[in-house]
Design goal:
1 helix
């Protein structure tokens, strides 16, 4: 008898926006990440399990001058390593077991999205808001992949990633 184990993975993205030290305040920005639900993982399948989640950066004016004349904000979006402590080898935990996965900047899942360490990349963005508009936004997609054929126990697995926007 062949048993097919099903696993459910979820990566929780939690956001923060950080103004660079020494930079003049030009707008106020927030990040709104979404959880990435991979759904069922079949440990016997030779195909990886893929996921994707939206991430939104929004900036608004902070003073009357910016409201009247508009503003432009350049920023970098970084993702933490999560529980593994290494962006090149992220993992979800389910009790004592670990399910390896990673997050990427592109749909082909070739560029690891991290904090710039261990060969990972951050995502650059720019929001330009004309006068009297007040706020602007830019959306990104975080792409995920759980490699195939991992021998782990059935259950729920999760990791928490911190999203940081430096502007």
């Amino acid at each position: 008898m062949l048993a097919v184990w099903r696993f459910f993975g979820c990566v929780v993205l939690a956001g923060t926006a950080v103004l660079r030290a020494g930079a003049a305040q030009a707008a106020s920005c927030t990040v709104t990440p979404s959880a990435m639900a991979f759904g069922a993982y079949d440990a016997l399948s030779a195909a990886p399990t893929l996921g994707a989640a939206p991430l939104l950066v929004q900036c608004q004016y902070t003073n009357f001058f910016e409201l009247i004349f508009g503003f432009s904000v350049s920023f970098q979006v970084a993702l933490s390593a999560g529980a593994s402590g290494n962006v090149a080898n992220r993992l979800m935990q389910g009790g004592p077991d670990r399910l390896f996965y990673n997050l990427f900047t592109d749909a082909t899942r070739t560029v690891v999205w991290g904090d710039g360490s261990a060969g990972s990349a951050t995502q650059a963005g720019q929001i330009t808001v004309p006068g009297f508009q007040g706020s602007g936004q830019q959306s990104f997609t975080v792409f995920g992949r759980i490699p195939a054929l991992q021998n782990v126990a059935a259950g729920s697995y999760q990791d928490t990633i911190t999203v940081t926007v430096n502007y």
